[in-house]
C-alpha cells in the first residue's frame, strides 16, 4: 500500500518535467509489481510447489535490494521537492510521496530482518520447538 501511494502521488504531478522523478517512478512501480507478485505467490502457496527455490533467501535478497533502491528513491524524491513551486498541489503531492517513500524504505528494511530470521530458522514457535526437541 505504501509503495502504491508513492507512485500514485508522483504520477499525479507533472513528474515528466523533472528527470529525478522518473527514477522514483521506476523504483516504486517496479518494486510494487514484484511485491504484489510475491504476495500472490504466497497466497497460492507456490513456495510449497516449488520447494527447490530457497524462498526465505530469495525474499531476503529482494527486500535488501528494495531497501537500497528505495533509499536512493527517497533521497532523490526529497531532494527534488521545490518548496517555492508555483504549483502548490505538486509540492504537496511530492512532499507526501517523499514521506511515503521513507515509510516504504523502512518497511522493506524491517522485512529484511524478518526474512533473515526465516532464512536462518530463528522464527520457530513453541509448538515446533517441542516437536523438534523430541524427534
From TrEMBL:
Keywords from the named record: Cell membrane, Membrane, Transmembrane, Transmembrane helix
Which residues are in the MARVEL domain? 1-120
Q: How does it sit in the membrane?
A: Multi-pass membrane protein
PROSITE patterns, per database record: MARVEL (PS51225)
Write down the InterPro entries for this protein, in alphabetical order: MAL, Marvel, MARVEL-CKLF_proteins
Query: Looking at the keywords, is Acyltransferase present?
Result: no
Output one GO MF annotation.
structural constituent of myelin sheath
Protein's name according to its UniProt entry = Plasmolipin
